Amino acid sequence: MNYQENKLPVAVGYIENAAGGLSTARLETTGLGGSRRPLRITLDNTDIAEQIIIIGDGFGLFQAKNAVPAKDVDVIVGGTYGLNTLARLAEICKCVPFDLHGLHIANTTSAGASSEGFLLGGTLTNFIIAPDMQYVQEIEIPLADEVLQSAFKDNIRNNPNYRFHLNGFSGWKLVIPPGEKVVLTFSQIRAVGTGANMVMLQNGGGSC
């Protein structure tokens, strides 16, 4: 076992309770491992009107504050979790955060033809909302600028340097024109919040 200068094991640190008393906590993980995998979200607006879609927002605060209606049945969802991709992402990010790296966007029509309808006429916005819903930060991703010099398809946008922390208070808002299909691929789920500070119950004589 490795130890720090304070003679505690490397994964153990001091914490303070609400009354100012000191204790120790151990940072533990579930042992989740494996290779880094992409996260994919497919949204196909087969309706005759533009649609607003919320991804993430696990606690539903952003959707409630902005009175965004529930997803229209004419928006077909696909991706990593199939038809349940939006629902599962919202549920998962309430419990554990994702650290996502790299963003690739492909735009076609609902019929499958190459298109720039979303890239030129739609929007993709990052957001994060405070727990009391009194503060919201929204940053629109400039789709026109997300073109690599090596790109050879007009309907593709790619930003390998994109980073986003998805949790219950954050997510994305998309405005998708009618008849447009969008595939968002995050290159890596680089980290997932399965670690937790576990309060040590053997303070005093016990070992950590």
Number of domains: 1
H/E series: EEEEHEHEHEEEEEE
* Cα end-to-end separation: 10 Å
Taking pLDDT < 50 over at least 5 consecutive residues as the criterion, the unreliable ranges are 203-208
Tally of strands = 12
Chain-averaged pLDDT: 84
- Helical content stands at 10-25%
Largest sheet: 5 strands, antiparallel
Count of individual helical segments: 3
- In the sheet with the most strands, the strands line up as 5-3-11-6-9
Structural class by SSE content: mainly beta
Radius of gyration: 21 Å
Percent range for β-strand residues: 35-45%
Q: Tell me, what's the shape? A: globular
Describe the structure in your own words.
This protein is mainly β and 208 residues long. The protein has one domain. The chain has 3 helices and 12 strands, in the order E-E-E-E-H-E-H-E-H-E-E-E-E-E-E. The strands form 3 sheets. The protein has a 5-stranded antiparallel sheet with strand order 5-3-11-6-9. A hairpin with a 6-residue loop joins strand 7 and strand 8. The protein is globular. Mean pLDDT is 84; it is low at 203-208.
List the helices and strands and how they pair.
Layout: E1 12-16, E2 22-28, E3 39-45, E4 51-56, H1 61-65, E5 75-79, H2 85-95, E6 98-109, H3 117-121, E7 123-129, E8 136-140, E9 156-166, E10 170-176, E11 180-192, E12 196-199
Antiparallel strand pairs: 1-2, 2-12, 3-5, 3-11, 4-10, 6-9, 6-11, 7-8, 7-10
